[in-house]
Amino acid sequence: MDEAMLGPITAQVLSAVKGQIQSQSQSPLYRRCCPADWIKKNIKKKECCFYVENGREGICKCGYPKDKHCEDPIKPEDYVGEQWDRHRHTKEAPTDAFGDISFGGLGQKTGKYVRVSSDTPCEILYQLMTDCWKLRSPNLLISVTGGAKNFNIKPLLKEKFRRGLIKVAQTTGAWILTGGTHTGVMKHVGMAVRDYTLSSGLTEGQIVVIGVAPWGVIHKQEDLINPKGNLPVQYSLDEQGQGLLSCLDINHTHFLLVDDGTRDYGVEIELRARLEKHISQQSLGNRESGVTIPVVCVVLDGGPGTLNTMYNVMLNHTPCVVLEGSGRVADVIAKVADLPVSEVTLDLIKQLMERFFGQEYKEFTEVKVIEWTKKIQDIIRMSHLLTVFHIDEDKNSDVDVAILQALLKVPKSDEHAARQSLERQLELAVAWNRVDIAESEIFTEEIQWTSCDLHPAMFSALVGDKPEFVRLLLENGVCLGKFLESEDMLCELYAHLPSCFFLRKLATRVHGGKIRRGQEPQPGSTKISLSHVAEEVRHLLGSFTQPLYVPSCYKMTKDDVRLVVLSKGLVNPTCSDEERTTDKVWDSIRDLFLWAVVQNNPELAEISWEQCRDCIAAALAASKILRKLAQESGEDDSEEAKDMRELASHYENQAIGVFSECHSWDAQRAQKLLIRVSPSWGRSTCLWLALKAEAKSFIAHSGVQALLTQIWFGELSVDNAPWKVLLCMIFFPLIYTSFLTFRRDEDIQRQAERTEQQKLAMDSIFSGSSDTKLKHHYRGSSQEPELKPLNCSSRLMSLFTSPQVKFYWNIASYFGFLWLFAVVLMIDFQAYPSWRELLLYVWLTSLVCEELRQFYHDFDGPGFRKKAKMYISDMWNILDVLSIILFIAGLVCRLQASGTVFYVGKVILCIDFIIFCLRLMAIFTISRTLGPKIIILRRMMMDLFFFMFLLSIWVVAYGVAKQGILIHNEDRLNWIIRGAVYEPYLIIFGNMPNNIDNTQFDMDSCSMNGSNPLKPRCPVLNKDNMPAFPEWLTIIMLCVYLLFANILLLNLLIAIFNYTFEEVQDNTDTIWKFQRYELIKEYHSRPALPPPFILLSHLILFIRGVLLRYPPQKHKPFRQELEKTEEEELLSWEAYMKDNYLSSTRQVKSQSMEHRVQDTAEKVGVMSDLLEHEERVSATVNKRLAKLEEQVSESTKALHWIVDALISQGCTSNMQPPLMSEKSVFKSALIRCLSWHIHNPFFFFYKYSRLPFKSLIKNTLSLFLLQVESSLSSHQPLQWREVSSSARVCPYQQALRQIAQRHNTHI
Known about the structure:
- This protein is mainly alpha-helical.
- The strands form two sheets. It has a ten-stranded mixed sheet with strand order 8-3-4-9-7-6-5-10-11-12, with helices on both faces. A two-stranded antiparallel ribbon has the order 1-2.
- InterPro entries: Ion_trans_dom, TRPM, TRPM-like, TRPM_SLOG.
- Residues 441-701 form the TRPM-like domain.
- Keywords: Ion channel, Ion transport, Membrane, Transmembrane, Transmembrane helix, Transport.
């Protein structure tokens, strides 16, 4: 129906729909979802539409029979006199051959293919390969060309070519482009791919080999016809039955079968050239750096067509690599490549072509040879595009080095162009990930690089995950401070994160949670700002940290405002907020390390961490982030989560290693590193990061525990025995004696020792100097501020503010509370509260106030919700809350006038007493002996909780069945529970029932109708008033129940406890040390007075905080803000210790058994390669010796003929020839020849010669051996010219004349 008949509106609608369909068909999403439909719409084939016989019956001039043409081909009688033309008489149609191709055989090799028209746009073909075939854009295109017929090359060259081609394709991510058929150079490429596939064990190789072959000459075309492209076609190699056609090479991965409607060879050349040019115009990598995909042409063997191809590609500025020794054109060019153009003459080319082409040379015309000579001269003039690969048996380089070096040749004419070329080469080397090429060709002593020049390469190396290149660029001058100087560069790095869990979280935050689960954001598709990164990183690190990036557009949360206010008011009043913000935002090494950590990249993270100065805090922060990411991934068994946990453990070990190195050198400075506020990591501390990261091994380190022990003792010395402290708590005047040691006393003693050592050192330095002023100046400048001992009030305050003393007082107070509670419950629980009970209420009020103070008054804690979540996560806090709630509930019931409610209140308080007693276990967590046992007990309680599920199944199953069999319609709930649950549970502990056995039945022990609430209902009775239930069944049920419940399940519980004990026992010390921090922190912040006197302290805190608005006091032992100079010195010392640790780690690794085995394996591999090289050399030498013996034998026959000819002419000698063995035939013939020369009449010429006779003989022999050797190298036997008897000229004499001419001597 015509659109004009439908009206203008309908026509517009149809046009819009068509346009939408067409645009959808061109979209990448459409191509990915419907590749078959897209191919049928955009890829065409060609077929002949004008049938004209070419002289053979039934065959058209296009080469196809009539049934292979269009349905209605044009008849020749309709167009008399019209000549057949491939351009006019072929038309395009939708392709009918595409899809998957399976070659079968070993490994079931599969590939993809498509039949394309020779006029197909290259843009369509490139979209086909990248979108439909899902090929990644190449970093390099290798076009292999050469001989189309089968040819043989030397085994050594073949091995180097195959190994080098695969290596360069594998390391650079290159595409290899060939002719695609199983002949000539294409066959050699396919064999290289086959060897790689078999050696690597890959069924689908990583090497992309694309064959561009002519459709018309493919053998068994009918097997490739697949109009729908939905099923893979089967294709087998048939070299014997192919005839003049060609089979596809089964080792290629993709095929473009070019169709121009004929069955001619060479129809694909033009399309292949256009495709190579189009690929070379595409951008390299993910970033628009102006660098395009490089193309290199590799030439093996080849004829005139290969020479033309090579000439044309070099005119397009494409470098070529020629393999010397592969034959024909390749060898001709290799021989003249190093010669000046003036020496490349027509005669030389003729000689070389005659030598390397053999009989084929006779078919060449003089005009063609002249044309080829000019092309070869032009090729040599473009020497910067020509690279010849020579087989050097002394060097072990492969073709890959020659291919990459061909692309890295720098023209020296223009300095600016040379610099641009160097930058392009660096981009190529990064894209190829060839560090060896960059080290040898780019980063040389002649070339000076600045940091800015290397920034694009650094970005490509980071985004492309090339850690070796990142390390190389850092070694060659990249400054991370300049590289990440701008915020845009860091945002660009985050936008190009690879697919990972952090990128999904970041994309979800950017899009406001609109990313669906499983929908992967593409790198570079999301615009990310540092505010998004700061929010997500703070979520991972914890809200106790400040945001790492605070741009002006970042909206701060309530927690952010609170932390900033606290930091301004408390942390360091002398440090301005601007300074902190600068330190916080522009730590470039931290930024790069964080970028590598969040994507779970261990190599890049390790390189960045090695550059960090604040390395301990960085390692602990990375451990915290990675554990949080693994936890939130929701897939604990996924590989990504496992890798995150492994990397988190690695950085925890790195932090332990550096801290151990620091602690071994200086324990005090190492402890200062733990509590130093780190501006780079949200103003947190190493100790707090380790706690939040649950780095138990780090907390269990002796240095960290020494710091915690020092905090635990407060101002008291850690060497004081506990009994001394307890005694001083009772008789405090003892502190004014030397009975108890304080930390200040130890500091004074150490200072005195240091001062004495410094004094001795100064005296030794200035022993010969008489300048007293200089002595006093240096002594005064080196002396530290003198410490003074504590006075009486300070000693008393130091004693009672010590966390250890607070703990002892609170233990005594808690025991007093439990004693008072027990007395009230058992003795003094009256209707009206007594003074003891009132004291108990006051005591409990002090405990409630203390819990509230701990909840709110926490400097390191976050906001209310986070505090509540953290508070409930602790089991002891749950017991505290539960005990307080039960006490309040019991108190409310106890104060009621009703007697029943009063008793219920007492019951609730009795249960509450049990919980208060259980809470007593938390006090013993500080004990090194009982603390680990409490941890084991908690783990066993968890096991017991899950075990009860298994036990309840058997208990309920047996109880319900027993109750149903014995009792009929029991309606009392308490007796139902007793019979179905309680009695079966008691059976486990040995309380055997007596109601399942008729012999133990007693009517007085039960109630017939259940009227007596104190007796159970009687079982169903028979006529004799005896139980009617089947006694045998109930006994069997009891036996089975006892077997499974008592024996099987209880022993299972014992085994579970045993396994838990063995598993936890090894780690209990570590876990105990980790949990010890919370107790130390609690008692460090607790007021000095114990309950109930602690209410006075709470009152003071309330007045200071609420009424007077004083800020809360900070935890000085847990956080310390250092001066700028002191912090720089400490960080420099930490970086030095880190370098020592890394060097010692590398040394230990080099001495490990694994490294030794690996080193030995590498040496064995090198020796194996050397042996193989020697075997190849010896084989070559043996072949050369065999051919030399053959040539010597031929020469011996020729000498025999010479001597016989001379003798037949009457030339005799007065001397008799010496007798020789058959092995010395050659020597005998040579002597006979020389004796003929001596007695020959022509010998008089030599009397007047200026050439000495000995030199003549020596040069004669040398020339002869050189002729033999040269004939051997060219694989041609010596050709001896026959001399007529009348000429009386010896062939050997001609050689003598040549020698004489070389020495300016006339013969």
